[in-house]
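Feature request, filed as a ticket because there's no other form

It would be nice if the structure record came with a short human-readable summary line next to the tokens. Right now we just get the raw output. Example of a typical job, pasted below so the devs can see what we mean:
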Amino acid sequence: MQSVRIAGVLVTIALAGVMALGGAVDAAAQEKAPQEKQKAAAEEAPRAKPAGRLPNYYAEVVDKAQREAIYKIQQEYEPKLAELRRQLEALTKQRDEKIRAVLTPEQLKKVEQLQEEARKKREAAKAKPSQGQPAKPPKPGPEKPADKPSEQ
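Raw output as currently delivered:
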């Protein structure tokens, strides 16, 4: 009975966190990144066996049977949570569209300009190493045809 109560509290906390994050109107919210599309596809694919992630601090105190029970509960709630996330995303998009409709074309252009500047600033900050930390090497991209030796 206590595990059901804990699961209910965790669901409430998760939804509150998702709703709080949905409050920010940002250019990034307007476009789905490829990683987000992959994540959404992964969420929709059902898992073959119960697996998941234990809530913080549970790993040290639960036994194998409890671990499996928690994973099963998480698997039971995941489709419901995924549907709520989709609904929240749609509702957030609808709200953002209504908010944008309030603006004049000039204001909308200015907002888009500010969002673009913020995006560029974030990218620059991400590329620049923070103090005391080494720069991350760039991720290797696909080979360009010019880089490959010709096969003649």
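Something like this underneath would help us a lot:
Residues 57 and 67 are 12 Å apart (CA to CA).
The helical segments are 2-22, 27-30, 34-44, 64-102, 105-127.
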